[in-house]
Amino acid sequence: MSYLIKHLKELEAESIYVIRETFAQFNKPAILFSGGKDSIVLTHLAKKAFWPAKIPFPLVHVDTGHNFPECISFRDKLVKEFGVNLVVGSVQKSIDEGKVAEEVGINATRNRLQTTTLLDTIEEHQYDACMGGARRDEEKARAKERFFSHRDEFGQWDPKNQRPELWNLFNGLKHYGENFRVFPISNWTEMDIWQYILLENIDLPDLYFSHKRKCYIRNGTILSVNDYQDLKEGEEAKDMVIRFRTMGDITITGAVESDADTLEKIILEVAAARTTERGGRADDQRSETAMEDRKKEGYF
Amino acid sequence: MINDLKQRWKTEKKKDTSNMEDTDNYLGRDLLRFTTAGSVDDGKSTLIGRLLYDSKSIFEDQLTSVKNTSKSKGLSHIDFSLLTDGLKDEREQGITIDVAYRYFSTPKRKFIIADTPGHMQYTRNMITGASTANLALILIDARKGVIEQTKRHSFIASLLQIKHIVVCVNKMDLADYGQERYDEIVTEYENFATKLDVEDVRFVPISALHGDNVVDRSDKMSWYEGSTLLHTLENIHIGGDRNMKDCRFPVQTVIRPHSDEYHDYRGYAGRVESGIFKVGDEVTVLPSGFNSKIASIIDNEKEVQQAFPPMSVTLNLTDDIDLSRGDMVVRPNNQAEVTQDIDFMMCWMGNEPFDPRKKYTILHTTNKVRCVVKEVLYKMDINTLHRNEKDLSVGMNDIARVKIRTTKPLMCDSYTQNRSTGSLILVDESTNNTVAAGMII
């Protein structure tokens, strides 16, 4: 009998440990579900953590109103299959209530507006720990993120004043009104996620696989033609064979040209990829510290 | 240099893109966590950049971004530290303030680097990074030799019971790649290391800047017959570092499905911190002392026959006994000590100094208790390893031996026996900040 444990099993065990700690230490945890592969993997890990009981907290989805329709139908199917509660926070509602103003201009997106809706949803439902599928390998500001990330009463992240995180002792103590973001898959890389999806045969939205789609190219990024953006002069919609490496708002999620239509092919493509998966995200390209700035305000 | 690397990248890329064996291998890798420590100038960031780049863990867009930033700062070379220094303040000040986690993998292993700053005042970050590491990588500048900071890093690695230390004698290019200088440093370090509690120390002469002995063997140091750094990291045996003897299972939470199918189900969720639990094993539950047997073990929604570290599983017992978060499942003939009096080495991390008159909250395994301080025995000078029994004031980055009494019993082992049941943290009750790390003696 071998007592060796392989790295995916070790990562899985670590994440399950963190999810259970979150459940045990907080009154009202939730999973922030984006519809992307990372939050899908996170939801599967949560299912394993409590089996045969159902996931004992809801999935919270911040709906920008600018979604890929495939994402929404996938979300609804998963929710039904897992028997888990779904809570939707609507950016459209935040706009209608006048809490945020729609960005204007040709590069307008609702990405930044999500933060307000997210914080309002957290406040409305009194969630004290929101688990997200962020990984430290994604972006440089995230490399410094804790598993248990403390947020003040305004939901803000103070990267210079983070609690040291030692061994596997997670300090979730907080004052009234404060809350935590928890990142159970912090130590996974993009490759780990894909390998795990393959190993566990996890179902994903079709958008991740190669398909034909009407696209246009803006600032070097391949974007899906959608109802929310107009083409600029010189931009042209054309059929392309693409897939998406991340799943976000339809207006900012860049595609890659790819004929990878199976998990195995995707893994090969990821192994050979020369840009990070967030390389196609217009939201990160706004400035050198775009992610850090958004995180400080309370973004995921 | 970067053009060399890029050229090399291109040829290597061709070689392995269409090789499915690589992905099969991937499933069979194990995980090595290591911590790096070094000061601003000893080439730590360059070394990490080199490891990431040579293992193809740096992507084009990251490289482009680092190149652009280097250029806009007026640098003639590419500043690899920009890859690891993620926060705005760090970039502006050119220092690392916080532990950053980096990932790379080779066909043999996946690596997690806890990259910690080397400044004097950031002992707390080194301890944080070291607490989860299997191995510590210590950099010595070949021109400077063993300096105070080398000693401090090594002492912390030893205190945190990191079993393996790899000492990289860096900047060999600036020491004429000479064996004599290298041997001198090795002897100097070995003399110092006799005072430490580390089982396995290895040395590699490298030049991170030029890549000598990092991934590829150096042709400038033919006198060196040992392994390259990457080969060492890939092959060091870490499986034996886990404690497979003393069965310890702290309960995180109780799973009760409340469904018709699992009406009376009570599962105890937790992670095996040490030892091997098997179905049918007699177990004792602490602190109550009740005995029972393991009826079944659930891993990944299936029943399994045994569980060992670091698996997260659910245990079901044959008897319906009172068991909840904070309790611990052990074997009757090998129990953790149940005690309210704890003697430990404390690393203070709080901004405010330690106040022995205050009560602190202790987090230990899955327990949360309060404590009062009974005695501060001595303060340790981590440069000289001297015990100071006169000045017992403890502030940020100080290490002291302390005795406390807790409000409820904890189930402990000594830290040298067990890194999980032997570690604790102190939390300030007014701010809720983690203010100290403790290693039970």
Describe this structure in a few short sentences.
Chain A has 8 helices and 10 strands. Chain A is α/β, with parallel strands linked by helices and about 300 residues long.
The shape of chain B is: globular
How would a crystallographer describe the biggest sheet of chain B? Answer: 6 strands, mixed
Tally of individual helices of chain A = 8
Shape of chain A from CA axes?
Answer: globular
CATH architecture of the largest domain in chain B: 3-Layer(aba) Sandwich
Strand content of chain B: 25-35%
CATH homology superfamily name of the largest domain in chain A: HUPs
Q: Helix segment count of chain B?
A: 10
Helix proportion range of chain B: 10-25%
Q: Return the structural class of chain B.
A: alpha+beta
Instruction: Enumerate the spans of chain B where pLDDT stays under 50 for 5 or more consecutive residues.
Output: 1-26
Radius of gyration of chain B: 24 Å
Query: How many individual β-strands of chain B?
Result: 22
Q: Which quaternary structure do these chains form?
A: heterodimer
Mean pLDDT across the residues of chain A is 85
The side-by-side strand order for the widest beta sheet of chain A comes to 3-2-1-4-6-5
CA-CA gap between termini of chain A = 42 Å
Order of helices and strands of chain A: HEHEHEHHEEEHEEEEHH
CATH topology of the largest domain in chain A: Rossmann fold
Query: Given the helix and strand composition of chain A, which structural class is it?
Result: alpha/beta
How would you explain this protein's 3D organization?
By secondary structure, chain A is an alpha/beta fold. Chain A folds into 2 domains: 7-192 and 289-297, HUPs (Rossmann fold); 205-286, no CATH class. Chain A is built from 8 helices and 10 strands. In chain A, the strands form 2 sheets. A 6-stranded mixed beta sheet of chain A has the order 3-2-1-4-6-5, with helices on both faces. Chain A is globular, with a radius of gyration of 19 Å. Chain B folds into 3 domains: 2-241, Rossmann fold (3-Layer(aba) Sandwich); 249-330, Translation factors (Elongation Factor Tu (Ef-tu), domain 3, Beta Barrel); 337-440, Translation factors (Elongation Factor Tu (Ef-tu), domain 3), CATH 2.40.30. In chain B, 22% of the residues lie in helices and 32% in strands. Chain B has 10 helices and 22 strands. Chain B has helices spanning 2-16, 20-27, 44-54, 60-72, 81-84, 88-93, 123-130, 148-159, 179-193, 229-235, and strands at 30-37, 100-105, 109-115, 135-141, 164-170, 200-205, 249-255, 267-271, 277-278, 282-286, 291-299, 302-304, 306-307, 312-317, 328-330, 337-348, 360-364, 367-380, 387-388, 399-412, 423-428, 434-440. In chain B, the strands form 4 sheets. Chain B has a 6-stranded mixed beta sheet with strand order 2-3-1-4-5-6, sandwiched between helices. In chain B, strands 7-8-14-11-10-15 form a 6-stranded antiparallel barrel. A 6-stranded antiparallel β-barrel of chain B has the order 16-20-18-17-21-22. The longest helix of chain B has 15 residues, at 2-16. At the A-B interface, helix 1, helix 2, helix 6 and helix 7 of A face helix 2, helix 4, helix 6, strand 2 and strand 3 of B.
